[in-house]
Amino acid sequence: MAADWGPVVVAVILFVLLSPGLLVQIPGRSRVVEFGSFGTSGIAILVHTIIYFGVLTIFVIAIGIHIHSG
Questions:
Q1: Does the CA dihedral 33-42-19-36 come out positive or negative?
Q2: How far, rounded to the nearest angstrom, does the alpha carbon of residue 44 sit from its chain's CA centroid?
Q3: Which residues sit opposite 69 in a β-bridge?
Q4: Does the pLDDT value for residue 49 go beyond 90?
Q5: Are the beta carbons of 38 and 21 closer than 8 angstroms?
Q6: Residue 24's beta-bridge partner residues?
């Protein structure tokens, strides 16, 4: 039986890229967008969660990325 790894791969990549403070933080502490601040806040976590859910939904459901193994 072939497993569909597409959603897992997309979720992991988006999780790493959208971690608040790693590459970008929206909203930042002193600006709207901060790059590479390595800090976070509660509102930034909420904003990044909403962005993550939206982009993941687009990639997995609307576009339908599938990676089959086996």
A1: positive
A2: 13
A3: 3
A4: yes
A5: yes
A6: 35
Q: For residue 4, name the pLDDT band (cuts at 50, 70, 90).
A: confident
Contact between 6 and 60 under an 8 Å Cβ cutoff? The reply is: yes
This prediction has a pTM of 0.82
Of 1, 12, 11, 7, the residue nearest 69 (C-alpha): 1
Alpha carbon distance 25, 38 (integer Å): 9
Q: Cα 61 to chain center, whole Å?
A: 15
The two tokens of residue 68 are 């089959």
* DSSP track, 5-70: -HHHHHHHHHHHHTSTTTSEESS-SSSSSEES-----HHHHHHHHHHHHHHHHIIIIII----EE-
